[in-house]
Specification:
The protein is mainly alpha-helical. Helix content is 62%, strand content 0%.
Length: 95
């Protein structure tokens, strides 16, 4: 399954669904067009502050966006970590 950046979801399910341009949406969110463009194109993460902005303007909960970003980040590193061998830490416990 493809790992979808939450910015793509924001673009398709919120911005496009409301027939807004990136410029119009950035004005509503109170951020620069460049900032929003970087998010919707997967070049930047959705910050906690942006989570609150999205929820305040479009409804919903900031937690939804924060969770989407966290899940995306975890999936992004998953393949890299499969090749990295980790051993569980076991302290020498003396009685």
């Amino acid at each position: 399954m493809r790992n979808i950046h939450p910015g793509e979801i924001l673009r398709e399910e919120v911005i496009n669904a409301n027939e807004l341009s990136i410029t119009d949406a950035s004005k509503l969110l109170g951020v620069t067009r460049t900032t929003l463009s970087n998010i919707v194109n997967g070049k930047s993460e959705i910050s906690p502050e942006m989570c609150y902005r999205i929820a305040a303007v479009f409804g919903g909960s900031p937690d939804i966006w924060a969770n989407l970003q966290t899940k995306y980040n975890l999936r992004s590193i998953e393949d890299k970590m499969k090749h990295f061998k980790l051993s569980p830490y076991r302290a020498n416990i003396r009685a």
